[in-house]
Amino acid sequence: MSKAIVQLHNVSKQYKSLHAVDNLSFSIQPGEVLGLFGHNGAGKTTTMKLILGVIEASAGEVNVFGTDPSTKQAWQSRKQIGYLPENVSFYEQLTGLEVLTYFARLKSAPLGQVKELLTQVGLADASKRPVKTYSKGMRQRLGLAQAFLGEPKLLLLDEPTVGLDPIATQEFYQSVDRLKKGGASVLLCSHVLPGVEQHIDRALILSKGKAITIGTLDELRTQAKLPTTIRATGLNGAIHSNKLLSSFATSNNQLSVPNKDKIQVLRELLTYESLSDVQMEPANLEQIYQHFLHLPSEANQPKEYKS
User: Fold this and answer.
1) Which PROSITE patterns does the entry link to (predicted)?
2) CATH code of the domain containing 128
C-alpha cells in the first residue's frame, strides 16, 4: 500500500472541558475519497482544521505529506492542499476574476488556471462582477474554484454542495472524480448524503468527537447487518402465500431480506413464471449513517476494516 497522505493517530483536541475530537485515528491513501459524516458538533470541521495545521492537537499525532501540519516545515506542502470551508467569505469589492487571481498568486498556481476554473464552475459570465453581487450559490462556486487551484494533491471539502443546484452539484462531483483519477486524495464532509455515496471509497462516521466506524459501504452494511430491499414485479400477491417469501415481505411486491438469505430468496422468486422484473437495493449511505448514529453509546466502538 502507498504511503498515506494523511495519518491521524490517537488525536484529541480539547477546549477546556469540551472534547471536540477524542482519540481519533484514521488515514487517507493517495487517490482515495474519504467521506466524513456526523451531526453538528461531531468534530468534522475540527478534524479538517487539525489536518490543515490551523489548530494543534492536544494529544496524538497528525501527519500530512509526511510532516506535522502545524510546523513551519509544512508551509511548503500547503500549496498541495485545496480547502473549501463550510461558510466561504471573500473580499466583497473585488470581482470574481480578481479574487481567484489573488488566491492563485498566494498559492503560486498558474494564472492560466483562473479563467479555466471560472468557466468550469459556471462563473465566466460573472467573472467581472463584484463578489458582493453574487448569490450564495455563486459564492460557493467561486469557493470551489479556489479549492481546485493548483490541482491539489489533497482536497478538504466542508459541505461543498451547499447552495448548488443539481447540475452544479453533478459538475462538482465530476471535478472531484477527475482529481481523484489524477491521484488526489479527498476528505469530503457533507450533510447531503444521497449524492455522495457513489463518489467515496470509504466512510468515517463521527459522534461527539469519536469515530463510531470507518470502512467501505459494503463493509459497513455487513457490520450493521442491514437488509437488502428486493422488489419483485408480476407475482400478483403470490409472495404472501409462499412461506419463505412471506417471512420477508413488507408489501405485496417488496421484501426486506438479510444478506445471508438473498440467494435463497432470489432462487425462490425465479421459480415463478409470472415474474417479470426483480430489483435489488442494498442499504444506502443514509440508512447506514442513521444505523450507526443511533447505536447505544456502549456499542460505539470504532472498527476499521483492512482490505
Assistant:
1) ABC_TRANSPORTER_1 (PS00211), ABC_TRANSPORTER_2 (PS50893)
2) 3.40.50.300
Residues spanned by the domain of 258: 227-281
Q: Which three cell numbers mark 288?
A: 447506514
Please tell me the distance from the alpha carbon of residue 269 to that of residue 255, in angstroms, as a whole number: 11
Helices (H), strands (E): how many in the chain?
9, 12
- Please state the domain count of the chain: 2
pLDDT in tens, 182-240: 889 999 998 778 778 889 999 999 999 999 999 999 999 989 999 999 999 998 888 98
Please tell me whether residues 96 and 240 are part of one structural domain: no
* Inside any domain, residue 90: yes
Question: N- to C-terminal Cα distance for the chain?
Answer: 10
| CA 252 remoteness from chain centre | 36
Phi, psi of 41 (to 5 degrees): 85, 10
234 and 211 share one domain: no
CB atoms within 10 A of CB 296: 6
Task: List phi, psi (to 5°) of 167.
Answer: -70, -45
